[in-house]
């Protein structure tokens, strides 16, 4: 029995109505409660991807994500999408709340969030919903989950997204993006299909796909929408033919190429039976669902979005952090000294192991989400877990591709048993703004993961310049190198020292440390001279783990004489230093 309470009990979100999109505004009449437009409001009648219909909100990727989550729940009888709506009964099933207050669990910016909404929904002058809804007019779950996500994203005037972002928000599953084109030399059609087929039927992964840019004529000819997301509902193989079943979130407009409902020649009775598809019946109603061959998907689509079940991994941990825009240069092409760096140590068992690292940049305002100007990546170095200073020395174990997506997934595959230690470096292309991010590591084997600590408690920066007489060049130029600037410092006790030299990028720079005098016997730690090695563009460093007490001179130089310009010389130590400029 349904009990309706007086309107005074109706819950209204204190944040107010969600901003509407321009298309919604043009058709908008009023906000309504579910019991205003249906006699029997129900949270869920049946979970089905076929009942989901997108309207005028530009959230095709979100609706596609909702569709495949529903298809997964129906196929595997696991509460993947319906479990995120509250209130729930004792069986964990979401229920209709006559008061109109709901909570939806979404994974946003690194953690699960509780999003509180009311059940007011926008309708047009005919009383038709202006948001996504179920073909069963009594069902609410589609409209309410969409409303919660739109609230987080700033309103129904949603700038658009991709399924990696949306599925991660809905499920917390691990996002991966596969570009089929755009010079992707690693994409292999055959092995990729085999992987998708096997993992899809194991229930390990949710899949959507998206078209790229195409002309209106091309879209009309093939029945495709440019830059549009489609849900992958099924993957099949039959006598060497490879098929995917796709759903257009609009619930209409289907593929017009090979094996469309109008392609009578290609369909055999055996294939129709195997795929449970009757072209003649399909011609009578366009529900946006169609079969397409793997070859045509590769030809006409651009990207595949995967979301992996985190339950595949026994172990996981995460770190939340911030990268201040003031830390380091705009570009990290020459120096990684200021990039966030992490140590990952993996205990690989016999038979090998996989370790996945998900970098998620936090989105904190609508404009950021709409334009996504930050290009992030993760670069992996096979090291003993020490800090990396030069981008290419040592060469990356796994180099990253900088993309303007909030999520970036790096996969490490280990084949030899034993301990493997890596340095993980967060990188940006032309850093402009402070970013907040989450790093989450997944593996089936034991690992430790931590930020690389610094032993340096004290930092001093000396501003200098090479100018005229003092631009002496390197030691190859004996007559002039003696004129380079010289700084002197004193160490009172043994400790670590890191020297960093930053100069104009167009010059190759280097530095040298010369022992002037020692306090006591330095033993094996003593040295006459040490240098930063090969001269490098714009940046070099010299790190000495234990430098004995004494007085030392530092000589920064460019490779060639007469290369004028300013420089910064940074001293990093565990104890305070006395520094002076001699010349």
TrEMBL record:
- Which PANTHER family does this chain map to? CALPAIN-7
The record's Gene Ontology biological-process terms are: positive regulation of epithelial cell migration; self proteolysis
For this protein, the record's SUPFAM superfamilies field holds: Calpain large subunit, middle domain (domain III) (SSF49758), Cysteine proteinases (SSF54001)
Please state which protein family the record places this protein in.
Answer: Belongs to the peptidase C2 family.
Among the GO molecular function terms of this UniProt record, one is: MIT domain binding
Query: What is the active site of this protein?
Result: 60, 228, 248
Organism field: Pseudonaja textilis (Eastern brown snake)
Q: Which SMART domains match?
A: calpain_III, CysPc
What InterPro entries does the database record attribute to this sequence?
A: Calpain_cysteine_protease, Calpain_III, Calpain_III_sf, PalB/RIM13, Papain-like_cys_pep_sf, Peptidase_C2_calpain_cat
Query: Pfam families this protein is in?
Result: Peptidase_C2
Q: Which domain of life is it from?
A: Eukaryota
- According to the entry, every stretch annotated as the Calpain catalytic domain falls at 6-310
Output the PROSITE patterns linked to this UniProt entry.
Answer: CALPAIN_CAT
Mention any one GO cellular component term assigned to this protein in its UniProt record: cytosol
Query: Under what name is this protein listed?
Result: Calpain 7
Keyword terms, alphabetized: Hydrolase, Protease, Thiol protease
């Amino acid at each position: 029995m349904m009990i309706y309470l007086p309107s005074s009990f109706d819950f209204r979100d204190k944040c107010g109505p969600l901003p509407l999109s321009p298309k919604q505004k043009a058709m908008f009449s009023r906000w309504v409660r579910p019991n205003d437009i249906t006699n029997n409001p129900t949270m869920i009648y049946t979970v089905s991807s076929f009942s989901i219909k997108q309207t005028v909100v530009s959230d095709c990727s979100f609706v596609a994500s909702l569709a495949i989550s529903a298809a997964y729940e129906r196929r595997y009888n696991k509460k993947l999408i319906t479990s995120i709506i509250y209130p729930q009964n004792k069986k964990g099933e979401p229920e209709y709340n006559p008061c109109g207050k709901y909570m939806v669990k979404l994974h946003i910016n690194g953690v699960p969030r509780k999003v509180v909404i009311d059940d007011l929904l926008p309708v047009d002058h005919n009383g038709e919903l202006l948001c996504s809804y179920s073909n069963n007019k009594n069902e609410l779950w589609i409209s309410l989950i969409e409303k919660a996500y739109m609230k987080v994203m700033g309103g129904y005037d949603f700038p658009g997204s991709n399924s990696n972002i949306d599925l991660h928000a809905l499920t917390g599953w691990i996002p991966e993006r596969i570009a089929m084109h755009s010079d992707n030399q690693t994409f292999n059609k055959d092995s990729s299909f085999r992987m998708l087929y096997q993992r899809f039927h194991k229930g390990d992964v949710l899949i959507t796909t998206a078209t790229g840019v195409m002309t209106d004529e091309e879209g009309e000819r093939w029945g495709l929408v440019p830059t549009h997301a489609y849900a992958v509902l099924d993957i099949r193989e039959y006598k060497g033919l490879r098929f995917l079943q796709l759903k257009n979130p609009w619930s209409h407009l289907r593929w017009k190429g090979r094996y469309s409902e109008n392609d009578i020649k290609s369909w055999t009775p055996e294939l129709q039976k195997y795929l449970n598809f009757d072209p003649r019946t399909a011609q009578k109603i366009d529900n946006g669902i169609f079969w397409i061959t793997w070859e045509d998907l590769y030809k006409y689509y651009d990207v595949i979005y995967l979301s992996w079940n985190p339950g595949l991994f026994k172990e996981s941990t995460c770190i939340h952090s911030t990268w201040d825009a003031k830390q380091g240069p705009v570009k990290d092409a020459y120096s990684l000294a200021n990039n966030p760096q992490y140590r990952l140590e993996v205990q690989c068992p016999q038979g090998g192991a996989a370790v996945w690292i998900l970098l998620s940049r936090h989105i904190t305002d609508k404009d950021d989400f709409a334009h996504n100007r930050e290009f992030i990546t993760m670069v992996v170095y096979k090291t003993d877990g020490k800090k990396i200073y030069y981008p290419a020395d040592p060469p990356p174990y796994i180099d990253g591709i900088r993309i303007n997506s909030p999520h970036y997934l790096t996969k490490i595959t280990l084949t030899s048993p034993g301990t493997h230690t890596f340095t993980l470096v967060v990188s940006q292309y032309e850093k402009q703004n402070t970013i907040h991010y989450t790093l989450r590591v997944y593996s089936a084997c034991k690992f430790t993961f931590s930020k690389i600590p610094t032993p340096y408690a004290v930092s001093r920066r000396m501003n200098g310049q090479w100018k005229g007489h003092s631009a002496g060049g390197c030691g190859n130029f004996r007559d002039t190198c003696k004129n380079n600037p010289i700084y002197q410092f004193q160490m009172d006790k043994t400790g670590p020292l890191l020297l960093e030299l930053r100069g104009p990028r167009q010059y190759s720079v280097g530095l040298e440390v010369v022992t002037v005098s020692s306090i006591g016997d330095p033993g094996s730690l003593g040295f006459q001279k040490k240098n930063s090695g090969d001269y490098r563009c714009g940046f070099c460093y010299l790190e000495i783990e234990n430098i004995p007490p004494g007085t030392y001179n530092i000589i920064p130089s460019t490779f060639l004489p007469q290369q004028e310009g300013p420089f910064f010389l940074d001293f990093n130590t565990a104890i305070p230093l006395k520094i002076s400029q001699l010349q």
